[in-house]
Amino acid sequence: MPVKAIPKVSVARNGLGSYIVPCHKIRVNYCNWGGSSKGVREILKSGELNQLGLTKKSIFFEVVKRQGHPSVEFYYNNDSVKDIPVKNMEASDVLKKINQFSQASGAELFKWNHKVLSTNESVRGIWSPMHVAKNDRHKI
Amino acid sequence: MFKQVNHIQRGLCQTTFSRSIYLHSGKRVRGLKRNPEEIFKTESGSVYGTTEENLQPLKTFLGSSYPISDNLLLQVLTHKSFGNGIKPYNEKLAALGSKLYNLYCLKHITNKPTTNTETAINGKNLDSIGMPLPRALGEREPLAIFAQVNKLNTVMFWKSYNHNLSFAQSGELKVSGQMMFALIGAIGFSHGKTAAENFIEEKLIEGTPSIENIANEFVEQNIRRGDI
Amino acid sequence: MLRLSSRAGARACANFRSSIVKNLSSSLYFSSSSITKHKTTYDNPLEYGTYKSNIYTHRLPESTAEQSPELVALHARLDLPKAYSLSTLSQALNMETKSEGLANNFGLNTLGKSLLSYYVAEYLLIKYPRLPMPIHNQAIDAYMGVEPLSSIGKSWGIQPDTNSKLEKYLAQEPFFMKYGKLRYLEETSKEEVKEDGVIELTGDEISQIEQNHGRYTPSEQDAYAASVRSIIGGLYTHTDELTTKQFIKNHILSRKLPIEQMFQFQQPMRELVRLGDKLGFKDPLEVRLIAETGRLSSHAIFVTGVFVGTEKLGEGVGSSLAESKTRAAVNALMGYYLYSPISSDGEELKVPSDEGYKFEGIVGLGDVAI
């Protein structure tokens, strides 16, 4: 065999060619009685959540009535789930939270102390001391 | 046989080297370079090259509507086994041709008007997929038989481990099938996918005999033999 | 913490449930399906329109499919055209071979695979015409093998149907919810209690591993890959080939292929010499030293080039003469194999299925034998 192949998998580049929203499901948990669920109950009653659901067609909204403080669970396509507590929040703040996390990637947040984060290699290449003219080379 | 080669220029002074190469004829001897005139010849005696007699069968078959350059046609006819793969051969052409042909056959099968109203999707009957005949239609064996019936494989540049064996056993069937895939691939490369699909329809599906009938016979033979 | 305890609870609960199921008569939860032999009938083998399977008797009614919110969301997420019916989308997610008369995705899967094979192969053959065949095949797998396709399926947010009938009943889950999920597990395996990190293999799976040289692909991965292929096949049945091609281009070919990491050379110098023979170079191959830091220094570095006459084919840097020579040969071979032609006006080449295609590239001449 002249050359052998090493198995590799192509790398996803979401947003290039097509864009898939990473958040595929939102579950809104609320209590029908408790005071901390007041804001959530309001967006349910006023139909604001319905409106939001219509604008975000690619997300499956599930509303669950249960005891305890309200929370919103976001399910992402990297198998992560973010459970965001929304107790005692105003209706507008709950909507803001839903908007914010429905646009997240689901990945852990991290700090990147460099200018570029890329899967492509540098277009400039690497400087080589061996390729300067012979007279200008560093002599050992 | 001696040959003079190589003028190598180094810096200002020019040196001329002369190298003598002995080109060996007859039985293979390890370490000796063989005479190309002897290697690039098929079992049946055809000499490798874009000569009229080599390309005539394919050219007549293609007619004037699907012209292919002589070099590409020669590449279609050359198999990997010929001359230790040193000449351009048809592997990449067949890679395109087989995929193109497979897709065409599947479209041909599913786009037929159907009486199956329950499970057909948008008028396309997918129940036939995977059944013996539709499956065999996309394979290389019926194509190889088609090539043999139409005498397209009379000149092919390939080498069997034993040319005296039968059509299937000597590997001629495989090589002929690959050659047909390569032919479809060559039309795809030269004229595009639509032209290649027209070619399949015009020359293979509506050909005499039709590739469908050949495939059907092939399947029936297999069933009789108990392979399926 | 919370998740852990709830999971442990669920497991205990599942344990309990499975013991109930064992005690109950099976007729309650399992419809005892009579074993029918797979048979497809036809009038004449050549009349493809008359083929009819006797197991799959119907497709999901559109009105039922519309009730599944996950299915509607998936349709919107993939930005599928209106003509693509939800019942076909649901069929594409159905892997079951012993279902209740509902058509599964076998045909769609085959159709999708054929479409993918052609468009991926065509793209690679035009873009990298000189790729050696093993690398070409592996590159096709990198785009449309089981692993990439299953990860695409996951990124599309497809969820598997893992809950047993009893669990669904206890959770009061409506029956139509499952039509938006990937159905590949049999009812009995859904009821098995799963231990984290432990996979129980069936006899079939063990023999499959032996066939695949010790490589194991979980049935979930296979199911995800099949569903992606089927969705592509379904797109073709409802729209046309052009739309399907665009979809494949957008979702599959837009991925990054780490092609330069896929080569493993055995004897690069020898391969290069053979390649020179095949291409009919006039001058012999020569390896020349271009620069060095001084070979008696503690960490010597050599820069070597591979030349044919006055043309430099490749260059390599190494800490010994042999290493730099090998790297130079590899560099030259990579330069040849990864050559990607462009059109006369400097644009990316058109592929044979493009409108106004003109042959401007090259056709690979085949690999060299060593």
TrEMBL record, chain A:
Domain of life: Eukaryota
Keywords: Mitochondrion, Ribonucleoprotein, Ribosomal protein
Family, as annotated: Belongs to the mitochondrion-specific ribosomal protein mL43 family.
Organism field: [Candida] railenensis
A GO CC term assigned to this protein in UniProt: mitochondrial large ribosomal subunit
Keyword Mitochondrion attached: yes
Protein name in the entry: Large ribosomal subunit protein mL43
Subcellular location: Mitochondrion
GO MF annotations in UniProt: structural constituent of ribosome
Domain Ribosomal protein/NADH dehydrogenase as annotated: residue spans: 32-105
Keyword field contains Protein biosynthesis: no
Cross-referenced Pfam families: L51_S25_CI-B8 (PF05047)
InterPro entries documented for this protein: Ribosomal_mL43, Ribosomal_mL43/mS25/NADH_DH, Thioredoxin-like_sf
Predominant subcellular localization, coarse grouping: mitochondrion
Transmembrane parts of this sequence: none
TrEMBL record, chain B:
Gene Ontology cellular component terms for the protein in this record: mitochondrial large ribosomal subunit
InterPro entries per the UniProt record, alphabetical: Ribosomal_mL57, RNase_III_dom, RNase_III_sf
Any Pfam family: Ribonucleas_3_3
Highest taxon listed in the record's lineage: Eukaryota
RNase III domain mapped to chain residues: 70-206
A Gene Ontology BP annotation from the UniProt entry: RNA processing
Molecular function in Gene Ontology: ribonuclease III activity; structural constituent of ribosome
Keyword annotations: Ribonucleoprotein, Ribosomal protein
Protein name: 54S ribosomal protein L15, mitochondrial
UniProtKB/TrEMBL annotation, chain C:
Segments forming domain RNase III: 71-158
Official protein name in the record: Large ribosomal subunit protein mL44
SMART domains tied to this protein: DSRM, RIBOc
Family label: Belongs to the ribonuclease III family. Mitochondrion-specific ribosomal protein mL44 subfamily.
One cellular component (GO) term of this entry: ribosome
Keyword RNA-binding annotated: yes
MF (Gene Ontology): ribonuclease III activity; RNA binding; structural constituent of ribosome
Coarse class of the protein's main subcellular location: mitochondrion
Domain DRBM: 267-338
